[in-house]
Design goal:
mainly beta; Immunoglobulin-like; 3 domains; four-stranded mixed β-sheet; 2 helices
């Protein structure tokens, strides 16, 4: 009798075991069957599903976390998913569609409340091929090709620049000032003729004076292929003009003064110099 009495119990256990192995599970108060596409189907109108909560350091101590493992990170108040492997986990924050920026384009974005950027003093950095290409720092300066844009400039580009459809690629645009003091400008070249005992002007030609200017160490170009513009910060004497300016090395430039006046001159003042390097 014992054996007969225990047979239904054994059969029930076997049936439950087979059911557990072969089917999915439903957790609800209605007795509804689980959805056939889910291994676990949880239904409730009064309660939620609570994930494991832990800190970043605790998550890092999970032994061999499976790819796809999900948890709630209390340090950043966000869901995180392991998209790496169990041997080399990579916990990534799960973003939500409502507040995400789509890579396929976005529409209906309220510009007053939605933006790409930061809400603290951390710079916004852009990368391609995992290499930093551009940064907008916390002060609003934009750096292209540099991670530390000059605070005195709104745009700091480290590298070649091309402006316009048919523009020329430019390596550097360098501007600085240099002061000259009591720089002598030669007198014009003249010769006299004696005509019937009277001395008259026989020939006249403007004089040329070359002035060498040192380029500051922080403003030196990489080559001598450049256009040099010089603008004096003072009025040149009558008859004196700047004929040309060119680089003679990466550390020096030569300014040629032309004197078509009537006498030698002396120049003192500031010269504003711009070098456009190609």
């Amino acid at each position: 009798m014992r054996v007969i009495r225990h047979i239904p119990v054994l059969l029930l256990i076997q049936l439950l075991y087979n059911s557990v192995k072969a089917q999915n599970f439903a957790f609800n108060n209605s007795g509804a069957l689980p959805d056939t596409s889910a291994i676990v189907d949880v239904t409730s109108t009064t309660k939620g599903f609570l994930l494991p909560r832990m800190t970043s350091s605790q998550a890092a101590l999970i032994p061999k976390p499976a790819k796809g493992l999900l948890l709630y990170n209390q340090d950043i108040d966000a869901l995180q998913l392991n998209i790496g492997t169990s041997a080399s986990p990579s916990w990534q924050t799960v973003s939500f569609l409502k507040n995400s920026w789509l890579v396929t384009g976005n529409s209906g974005i309220p510009s007053a409340s939605r933006f790409i950027g930061t809400t603290d003093s951390v710079s916004l950095r852009f990368r391609t091929n995992n290499i930093a290409r551009m940064v907008i720092d916390s002060l609003g300066s934009v750096g292209i090709g540099t991670a530390t844009p000059n605070a005195a400039a709104k745009l700091d580009i480290s590298g070649n620049v091309k402006l316009g459809t048919t523009g020329t690629v430019i390596k550097n645009i360098i501007a600085f000032s240099s002061t000259i003091s009591s720089t002598a400008i030669n007198a014009p070249n003249t010769s006299a003729l004696n005509v019937a005992g009277v001395s008259v002007l026989g020939s006249y030609s403007a004089s040329v004076t070359d002035v060498t200017v040192n380029i500051p160490s922080g403003s030196q170009p990489g080559t001598t292929s450049a256009v040099v513009n010089v603008s004096p910060g003072f009025d040149l004497p009558t008859g004196v003009s700047i004929a040309s300016a060119r680089l003679i090395s990466s550390t020096q430039l030569k300014i040629r003064f032309l004197n078509a006046g009537s006498a030698a001159q002396s120049l003192t003042g500031i010269l504003y110099i711009t070098i456009t390097e190609f």
